[in-house]
Design goal:
The structure holds two protein chains of two kinds. Chain A is an all-alpha fold. Chain A has two domains: about 90 residues; about 220 residues, MetI-like (MetI-like fold, Orthogonal Bundle). Chain A contains 13 helices and no strands. The mean pLDDT of chain A is about 85. Classes of the chains: A mainly alpha, B mainly alpha.
Chain lengths: ~350, ~325
């Protein structure tokens, strides 16, 4: 017998013969762009990208029309526009990450994570002080608002998926509306209710309350999606074994969706970690480490950045950039964590 | 026997099938239900508190609070407080900036959504989707910093170009050649900020396009663009509109990024390239620091107006998106 293994064919993969003319056309467009830039009054990055886009689209169009006839006109133009539009969207993301890294690294130093700003000012040379107080403040904010909003979010999601009570469609609608509440309004609400009317003054706790308002809808919607993915066989099996509904939910449904619920929590935290606006009304802003979350002003990373930004001197801006670098690293790692938990499927 | 059963009186009705929940389940349901309604309670409380605090201002200023263009509080020698507060200019500015954001952001979002759904190879697709999601998680203060230091120098140059060649169109005109910190630049930053939400809603809707229609279009010999034009776009239009409205809600409420970039001025300005604009959310943090009690209440009233605006837009958007997603199933 012939034991030769047949190599699978991949007819959709472009052959070198198909790639060559496109690469040739693109390089032609590239050289034409440089040529035009040097000869005419077009200049700058904008001119370069615009001309390159125009030339390569035109080249593609001519090629496609020669090869496939007139019906390729729309196809070719639309393809170029869609690709160009997507590039325009993804460029800023890389630009943002790059500038943060570039500007943030110059502000990094050894005492950044071990000292607060209690004995330094934002306009001092960069080596003085650090953002320990802001880091502690942010951790307080994250923990407290998670403690408040994760149970509320998950139980609301349970109401929407398990009980499916008479008001669940309405509640769904309300939760969606709540996710659109502007962060500044959440801060104003906590200011006008908690800070003005109760003994709790501007502090980590008040700040966390305003962030919880923003976090609840995120947690609810993500948990709801995850709970809907739990196979209803599991629920029916639990009920058939004679368990009551709450036992089924607590011992079967929630554990089955555990990873997804963790993802929901992390996404909620990522949503609020960088919020600045509500903290302006509720946090006060301190320059030294404050370990009591219920009393006295406190700081947070976004607040630290905000302060550095509003002072506007080179040193304070360098502090702002390094603060945003720490914040972005935090958000990025939360994000990767959420992905790893989210990608694990249900164990069968 | 049989006849007596048919007489009627003896015939038992169909047995009612009930599941009487146990006590523990009743508790469980009661607790979960009460938590379920917490979102409604919070939303109502937000509206109620802001409205009550702002009531004094609404009462004394009336409709003028919405239409007035000034923000003056003066205390004369006798200690008498006179004030004239109106958020008209800020309202105009908010709408102007959000419009710029939508005009720039929505077409880009649609092209990204189409690219991700129909053009990108699968490996790149998952990576790019994570990038779009990551974009949504960027802190708004970062957008402010980046917009001010990186985008503004470039965008000022673009503004000059637009002014040079298009100033015969009224909105591209400017009373003075001051192009920094303009609504146009703030709108560009907002456009980048709303792209993730508009993209993800549009992508969700495009992915719901009935497969049989897509295949039918291909079977009739449509090109990829032909298929998108005749099947995907007609199906997804409502969803895209809903997504754009969700983006509009975000744009209305965005605070820190806009405040960093925009030059707040208390007069209405329709020239998008001219460096003077307004934004309700930015007004609130601009005036917050040195606000008297009276002004604080006025700012809370402004917050109430903002809350109503975003709530209205969001509810409309969710209604439209929900209907479109359902129609695909």
């Amino acid at each position: 017998m012939n034991s030769e293994i047949i190599k699978p064919e991949k007819p959709w993969v472009l052959t070198p013969r198909q790639v060559a003319p496109r690469a040739l056309l693109f390089s032609l467009a590239f050289f034409a762009t440089i040529f035009t830039l040097n000869l005419t009054s077009f200049n700058g990055k904008l001119g370069f990208f615009f001309l390159l886009f125009a030339y390569s689209s035109a080249a593609n169009l001519t090629y496609n029309v020669r090869k496939h006839g007139r019906k390729a006109i729309g196809e070719s133009i639309a393809g170029s526009l869609i690709l160009g539009g997507s590039l325009v969207v993804f460029l800023p993301v890389f630009s943002i990450l790059f500038t943060t890294l570039q500007n943030g690294i110059s502000g990094l130093h050894f005492t950044l994570f071990t000292e607060s700003m209690s004995e330094a000012s934002f306009i001092d040379p960069i080596g003085n002080g650090g953002l320990l107080h802001a880091l502690i403040g942010t951790i307080y904010l994250i923990v407290i608002s998670a403690v408040i909003s994760v149970p509320m979010g998950i139980i609301t999601a349970l109401y929407l998926t398990e009980i499916k009570g008479p008001g669940s469609r309405f509640i769904q609608f309300v939760v969606q509306a709540m996710s659109g509440v502007p962060s500044v309004v959440a801060g104003l609400f906590i200011f006008s209710s908690v800070i003005l009317l109760t003994p709790i003054k501007a502090s980590s706790f008040a700040g966390a309350l305003s962030l919880a308002i923003l976090m609840i809808p995120t947690v609810t919607r993500t948990s709801q999606e995850v709970l809907l993915l739990v196979p209803s066989d599991l629920r029916e099996a639990g009920l058939a074994m004679g368990a009551t509904q709450w036992k089924t939910v607590v011992t079967i449904v929630v554990p089955a969706a555990r990873n997804g619920l963790i993802t929901a929590t992390i996404l909620g935290v990522a949503r609020i970690a960088g919020e600045t606006a509500p903290l302006i009304f509720t946090l006060g802003g301190a320059d030294k480490v404050n370990l009591n979350p219920f009393k006295d002003y406190n700081s947070a990373l976004p607040f630290y950045v905000w302060k550095g930004l509003s002072l506007g001197t080179p040193e304070s801006l360098a502090r702002a950039w390094s603060g945003i670098l720490v914040l972005i690293v935090l958000v990025l790692s939360l994000f990767i964590l959420a992905r790893t938990f989210g990608s694990q499927k249900f164990k069968k | 026997m049989i006849s007596s059963a048919l007489d009627g009186k003896m015939t038992p009705g169909p047995r009612e099938i009930t599941s009487n929940p146990r006590l523990s389940d009743k508790f469980f349901r009661a607790i979960v239900t009460s938590f379920g309604f917490s979102a409604l309670i919070i939303l109502t409380l937000i509206g109620a508190f802001l409205a009550v605090r702002g009531f004094q201002i609404f009462k004394s200023e009336g409709l003028h609070f919405i239409t007035g263009f000034k923000w003056d509080v003066t205390i004369d020698d006798a200690g008498e407080v006179t004030y004239d507060m109106g958020i008209g200019a800020m309202l105009v500015g908010t709408i102007l900036i959000s419009t710029v954001a939508l005009v720039v952001g929505v077409p880009l979002s649609i092209s990204v959504a189409l690219f991700l759904t129909f053009y990108a190879p699968i490996r790149i697709r998952t990576f790019l989707i994570s990038i779009v999601d990551l974009m949504a998680a960027f802190p708004s203060v970062l957008f402010g910093l980046w917009g001010y230091f990186v985008l503004m120098p470039m965008a000022t140059y673009w503004s000059k170009l637009l002014y040079k060649y298009l100033n015969w169109i009224p909105i591209f005109d400017a009373p003075e050649k001051f192009f920094e910190r303009s609504p146009f630049i703030a709108g560009l930053v907002l456009a980048i900020m709303i792209i993730p939400i508009v993209t993800s809603v549009s992508r969700e809707v495009f992915a719901q396009t009935p497969l049989d229609r897509v295949q039918a279009a291909y079977a009739l010999g449509a090109t990829r663009w032909g298929m998108i034009r005749t099947v995907v776009l007609p199906f997804g239009t409502n969803g895209v509109i809903g997504g754009a409205m969700l983006g509009l809600g975000r744009a209305f409420g965005e605070t820190v990024a806009v405040y960093t970039i925009l030059n707040l001025v208390f007069r209405p300005n329709w020239h998008i390239l001219y460096g003077a604009g307004g934004n309700i959310a930015s007004l609130i943090i601009l005036k917050w620091g040195e606000a008297t009690d009276l002004e604080t209440n006025a700012l809370l009233a402004a917050g109430f107006v903002l809350f109503l605006m975003t709530l209205g837009v969001n509810m409309g958007a969710n209604f439209i998106v929900g209907r479109t997603l359902k129609s695909g199933k």
